[in-house]
Structures are given as C-alpha cells and as structure tokens.
Specification:
Low-confidence stretches of chain A: 1-8, 217-222
Distance between the termini of chain A: 92 Å
Oligomer: homotetramer
Order of helices and strands of chain A: HHHHHHHHHHH
CATH architecture of the largest domain in chain A: Orthogonal Bundle
Largest interface: A-B, 62 and 62 residues
Mean pLDDT of chain A: 83
Helix content of chain A: over 70%
Shape of chain A: elongated
Structural class of chain A: mainly alpha
CATH superfamily of the largest domain in chain A: Tetracycline Repressor, domain 2
DNA sequence: AATGAATGAGCTTTCATTCAT
DNA sequence: AATGAATGAAAGCTCATTCAT
C-alpha cells in the first residue's frame, strides 16, 4: 500500500516525463515532415509513423493537424525571435554591426533548414496559418536593424537616403533565397552549396553587395 | 452546294477553335489555382468549376492532375524563356545592360505573379515536377547574363573578382523575394507594394544595391 | 440538275452500303472485344476505336452498350444454329453420325473462338443477356442429337440406359473446355494446343471416350 | 493487479481476434461477390456493404481491389491444393483410385461453387491474376493422378497408350462444366441439378465415361 | 497514456451516354 | 451519316479524425 503510495507520484513523474517526451517526438517529426512537404502535402499518418507514436496521441496532444502545424511554426519562429534580440552593439562600427547581424541571420538559416522551408510554405500560403498564431516577426527584425542603421546614418557611414525596410527586405532575400532555391541553382556549381566554403563565399558576396555593390566606384563611367 | 463545300472545313475550324478555347480555359484556370494553392492544395474539381468546363475534359485534354500541372509549368516557363533571349546589346554600357536586364526581369515577375508562385512551389518541392518537363531555365539565365558581365569586366566597368553565378543568384533573390514575400512584408508599408511607385522604388533599390551597395565609397571608414 | 437527280439514288445506295458496312465493322470489333474482355470489361470507347468508327454511331445503330452486346451474341449464336441443322444422316451408322456431329461441333469451336468465349461469359453471367435475346440453343442441340441417339438405340448400337442429356452435356464439356481452359493447360504440352495435330489428337480422345463409353463392347460394329 | 496484468494480453487478443474477424468477413464477402460478378463486375462498395465493414478497411487490409481479388483466389485455390495431396492409395485397384479421386474432385466442386466460378473467370481472363499469385495448380493435379495411372498401366488395368494429360483435361471438363453451365442446361431437367440424386447421377455418368473409356474391356478386373 | 481498428467525407479518375454541328 | 466535344453518375482510393479498449 505504502509502496503504492510512493509509487503513484513516481509514476506520475515518469508519466509526465514520458508524456513530455512523446509530445516532443511528435513535434520533431512534424517539423521535419511539414518542412519537407508543406501543410497540404504532409500526412498525419506519416508524422505518427515517423515519431513512432500512435496517431491518436497527436490528437490528444495537439487537437488536430492544423493546430499541430501551428505549434510547429511557433516553436520554429521562437528560435529566430531569440536570435533577433541579441544583435546590436553600438560600440562597434556600423559595418561591423551589419556584418555580424547578417552573418548571424545567414548561419541561422544554414542551420535551420526547417525554418527556411516552413517560412516559405507560409509565404506561399499568404501566412494563412502564421497570422493566426504568430506575433509579427518582421516587426522584430526591423526593430533590431533600426538601431544599427540609424547609428550608421548618424555617424555618416550609411547613406541617409536609404530605406531601411528595403535593405531589410534585401538582406532577407539574399540570405533566404540561397537556401530556398539551392536545389535549382546547384547545377551551376561543382561543390555542394551547403559546404563550409560555399556558405562563407555566399555570405561574403552578400556582404559585399550590401556594402559595396558590384561596380567599381569613383572611376566608373556611365 | 458551295455553302456545303465551305461548311465542312468551317465546322472543323469552329470545332477546333472551341476545342482550343476549352483547353485554353482549363489551362488558364489551372494556372490560377495551381499558382494559388500549389500542386497539393489545388483541387481538380475547383479547376473544372473555375474554367466552366466539365471535369471529364481535363482528363481528356491533359491526362491527369499531374500532367495538367506539368503543362501549366511548361506554358509559364515558356514566357520567361522568351524573355531571356532578347536581352543584351553590347553597344550600350554594361550598367545600362544590367539595368535593362534586371528591369525586364523585375517587371516580368510583377506582371506574372502566377510564374512567381509556381516557381516557388517548384522550389519547395525540389523541382519534383519541373525537372521532368523543363529544360534548365537557370542555364539560360546564366547564358544571357554571361555576355553582359564578361563585356563589363573586359571594359573595366565590373570588378573582375565577381562570381557571375552569385550575382545572378542575388538578382533572382532580390527580385523574386519582393513578390514572394510581399504579403509578409506589406505591413511595413502604407502603400500597396504592387503600386507603380512602390515597384519602381524597389527596382531602384535593387539596381543601387547591385551597382553600388549601400555604403558611401571612398570616404567610408571601417 | 439531272445529274443531281441521278445522283440521289446513287448516293442513297452508297449511303446504305456504307451504312451497312459501318454497322458490320462495329459488330466485328465489338465481337472481338466483348469476346476478349466480357461484357463488363469491354469499353465502348475501345470498340469505337477498333472499328474506326465514331462512338456516336454505335448508339445510332445499336442503342446502347447492352444492346450491342446482345446483337453480338445473336450474330454469333446464329452460326451454331446453322451448324446444328445439317447434322444427321440416318443412312450412316450411329457411330459415324456421332463422330461427324462431334467433329463438326469441335471444329466449329476451334474456328470460332469468339463464340467459345462469348458463351462462357454468358454462362458465368447466368445467361443474363442471352436469355433476353436468344431462343434456347440447348434445345436445338438436343433435338439434333435426339435422332442420332434414338436411331442408335433402336439399332442396338447404343446402350438403352443412356441419358442423352448427360451425353450431350459431356460432349459440350469435352469440346468446350479444351478451348476454354486452353491457356491454363497449355504448360503441360510442348506443342501449341491449337495446332492441327493437337486438335486432331484431342478430338480423337473425345471420340474414344464418348464411343467406348456409351457403346456396347465386343458386339459393336464399326 | 493480476487482472491488469492479464488484461493487456487479453485486450491484444480480443483486438487481434476482431481484426482477424473483420479481415475474414471482408474476404468472405469478396469471395461471394467476385465469384458472382467477376473481377470487372464486382464493386468495392458492394463488398464493403456486404461485409458490413467500412470500405476504407478493405484498403487497409488488402491494399486495393486487385490485391483483394488475388487474396480471394489464393484462399480458394488453397482448398483444392489441400484436396489434391490426399488422393492415392496403391493398395486399392486403379479403378477404385480413379473413382475416389474423381468423386472427391466432383464433390469438392459441388460444395465450392465460388471456386468453380472464380476459376472460370480466371480462365476467361487468361489467368491474368492467378498467374501472379498462384503456383500451378495444374501441375499438382497431374502429379496426383500420375501415380494412379502409372500404377494402373503397370498392373494392366489401364491402356498404355493413354495420354494422361488428355484424361485429366477430360475429367476437369466433365466435372467443371456441370457446375459451370448448370444454369444453361437446367431447362432440360425437371429436377434441380444440384440435388443429391442429380449430383450422383452426373458423377456416375462421368465415371462410366472415364472408366469404360480408358480401361481395357472384357479382361479388366474390378 | 497509449493503441489499433474503424469511419465518412472527399479526392482523383473512369465510363456510358448525349449534344451540337 | 458522321464527328468531336461535352456531360453526370459512379467507381476506386485517400485522408483527417474518432471509437473502444
């Protein structure tokens, strides 16, 4: 009896633990599969199988497919929120700050392909799911960059006529598209676009573009 | 008698015409809906309804859903193939040529949202369909730009250390993403991102970036 | 004008002729395909294509698929009706008569595979179609054999306790099944079961079985 | 506690049992309906309805219509495989052995109309399905009979010039066709062809035909 | 908490038949 | 008489979701 009494909380803990674990495994599998196939192409059965957990539990934990997808989005976007907060340091030069921020963003994408793909499905679906569940991630990005750019303009590093939103849009474009359209562009290269050198090469190119463009300056005729 | 003699081919022509028209209507509706919802989200029923033509005819004309989708891709990619051939004029300056090419590409995308979206679905699906049916559109792009850039390098307009493939990737990124992620970024602006001014503003930004970057040159400290 | 006047009847005749021909071609194609695939497996489209005549005409000439099938049955069964009338000649010995009748039936089947198959589909479908359109072909068979057997019994060639219906059933079985199940049994032989020698061998076997089975032994004359 | 301990396997068993039962019910219904209407005429919906089980489960258990049909064939052919092994006893006379074998086959068919019909659909379809899934049932039959006949020939009961394959073909024909074409021939009789007396009468007729057909006359012992 | 079986709605595809010329 | 396009009903099959244990 006492054994039982002691056993119950123990069991509870274990149960809770296993429960958490099951939830996490479902979420992990769902992330992979939703990222791979998108909200329409993904199958609940496949997620259940991949997670090794009974399909019924998906409904127990997450309600339904759509809510599971929302949860996947949430957990993935949380990562980038975390990233965006730790950016700026006004003791550095604006160029350093830009470089650091872009680098952080670029490598975040490199390491989180699921995020890249999920956000792309979302973009195509007009944010049909994310709008419901997510605070505007764009606003956060702007906020983070605003400081850098304003500082840069003030200290005469950055041209004052620059529209920061356009720059932001461009940075996003230059980074995201590399991962996004990787497969279609890969044939142009011998090396794997995800190799260390290729990543660094791309990042440098992006930074060059952002800072200097591709043309000579001063002497160029037009 | 002559009336009869003329009637037969006329009937044939009318029929062929109507048939062509039906096919075209199906293709148009399919383009819209596949662009909107992607190959997985699109429904054959919906396409039939939208085209005002019996569902059975879709199968008569195109075989099945997948082949219809392939045909939609083909017809949309044909447009950009057409575009990519008429680009270069080496009598102009490299900057002019780049400007003209980018502008052409940018406005092509602006006017062909279906293409933007279709190519994005394809990218996410790893080109699973387009690989079957399409010659590499990337190669064509490279070809078109190669001349411009080589000319630019030779005439000392363009830095020789530039990797043309990266530039191409970047131009694609900067243009495509504007339309691609339009909806997610729209909240940052008051004006419709597809308005004439906004489009022109974006194009200018892209051209500036490509040609000059965002930093001052010469005097900039780092 | 007179030219026209003459032309009209000519056209009519030609038309009628072409009409007959079209009908015949449809019927021929339908026979092949219904025999091959059965009433359920056959497709109207396939018949139209095989006959080289527009599908619509099938409906013009025959009403619908079922009636076309009925017509196919009718035209095929007519052949065997024709056969069954010219059987008996009481000047010959009963054994000769039986032999001739069985031989006629056996080679009829050999030469009319469509009939074999059509009658088999019908048997499986419980005569669901033939009952509607066909006079009992079985009755005819019995009639034809009755004379032979009664003559045989009277002249003491055939055992009097024989049930003619059973014999008839057996002859039908022994002949039909050879063609019916040919494909399944073929592996047991090296030679094609439809070759001249194999056919003759089978017929001999059947005759041996029938005659030695139903005739007195020892005293029988041949 | 023990109750719980026992409960888990019990539940498993019950579930498995119900699952097996569902599978079996589907198979039973499918057998009836495929036998009745053939692979082309049968409808999955009808099978679902007849089995009282959701259509979806048919696909869960059997894959698709064709595989279900294959399974139906397999399970039915297994019955006759079982039959064919227990045939011969060389202590008996050849005639006894033949009689016993034919009787066994005949009554097997009488009691398994589904088998008769399924094998007939297969024959008409050129074994298109069975070839995929079934070991040659014909070979087994030959094997079983071979012993009897060789023994019969050696002991001078059976004529040595007999082609056993023809005899086998004939037995099959004489037995199968009785059930196969029963409906078409029924009008010739007052009594139901499936009644006990009629069956026995038919079997006697077949045996007479076979034995008097293939055995020596006069000297043969029985 | 966890499971396997079951369900109904809906999807893609097929087919016999008819319309318009 | 002949044709090609078009149709609606129904077939095979799939999926998200729920039941029973």
């Amino acid at each position: 009896m006492e054994g039982n009494a002691r056993k119950v909380p123990l069991n509870r803990n274990r149960r809770e633990q296993r429960s958490e674990e099951s939830r996490a495994r479902i979420l992990a599998a769902a992330t992979t599969i939703f990222a791979e196939k998108g909200p329409d192409g993904a199958r609940v059965d496949e997620i259940a199988k991949a997670s090794g957990i009974n399909k019924r539990m998906i409904y127990a934990y997450f309600g339904n497919k759509e809510e599971l997808y929302a949860e996947v989005l949430r957990s993935n976007y949380n990562k980038i929120y975390a990233l965006s907060t730790k950016a700026v340091d006004l003791k550095r030069t604006p160029k350093e700050n830009v470089t650091r921020a872009v680098r952080a963003y670029f490598y975040f994408l490199a390491e989180n392909e699921a995020f890249v793909r999920l956000s792309s499905w979302e973009a195509l679906n007009g944010g049909r799911f994310s709008r419901k569940v997510l605070p505007s991630f764009v606003d956060l990005l702007v906020l983070a960059f605003d400081d850098i750019v304003k500082d840069g303009i003030q200290r005469k590093f950055i041209r004052p006529n620059i529209d920061i939103r356009q720059v932001l849009f461009s940075i996003q474009a230059l980074c995201l598209t590399y991962f996004n359209r990787r497969e279609l562009m890969q044939p142009l290269w011998q090396e794997d676009l995800l190799s260390g050198e290729m990543l660094e090469a791309r990042l440098q190119h992006i930074l060059d573009l952002i800072t200097d463009g591709i043309f000579y300056h001063g002497e160029a005729v037009e």
